[in-house]
């Protein structure tokens, strides 16, 4: 999710070549595997669908198509459950970018099974939407950073209240 800084920062995956380098750096793809423009489009769609699901975890509006996009990535990856040391993980039977996306989707399914998925949230600040793991005891985190987005959002809300009170 955080390969695209929506607030004006860089898009780290602007094309198929950048996606290939990113996948190689994390050992998610075989060095001989090609990455096509169509693969790039699918990968970006999966990334944004995961952002939408993290928005849902934060109680924010999200696109209902997100589930379908992630499910399609799982189908293309041909994910299969593997039992190891009394833990289930999901392995893709596909190759290339579909396998790489399958590893990511498999991690989502594992997090859901472990009960940690709902802690992956998107920042509540609408121009940020950065992913963060809500480690708060009561799962009440709203912002990726209290020092940056939290402070800005609280100041913005206070300003609106002051303006409304003087109107």
What does this structure look like?
With 167 residues, the chain is mainly alpha-helical. It has a single domain (16-166), classed as Jann2411-like fold (Orthogonal Bundle), CATH 1.10.3300. Helix content is 50%, strand content 11%. The protein is built from five helices and four strands, in the order αααββαββα. The strands form two sheets. A two-stranded antiparallel sheet has the order 1-2. Strand 3 (120-122) and strand 4 (131-133) form a beta hairpin. The radius of gyration is 18 Å and the shape is globular. The protein starts with 15 loop residues before the first helix and ends with a helix.
State the CATH topology: Jann2411-like fold
CATH architecture group name = Orthogonal Bundle
Strand order of the largest sheet: 1-2
**How many strand units?**
4
Protein structure class: mainly alpha
Secondary-structure element order, N to C:
HHHEEHEEH
Mean pLDDT: 90
For the largest beta-sheet, the strand count, sense and barrel status come to:
2 strands, antiparallel
State the end-to-end CA separation.
40 Å
Low-confidence stretches: none
Descriptive tags:
167 residues; mainly alpha; Jann2411-like fold; two-stranded antiparallel ribbon; 5 helices; 4 strands; globular
Present the secondary structure layout.
Layout (H helix, E strand, L loop, with lengths): L15 H10 L11 H21 L7 H13 L1 E6 L2 E6 L3 H19 L5 E3 L8 E3 L12 H21 L1
Antiparallel strand pairs: 1-2, 3-4
Helix pairs in contact: 2-3, 3-4
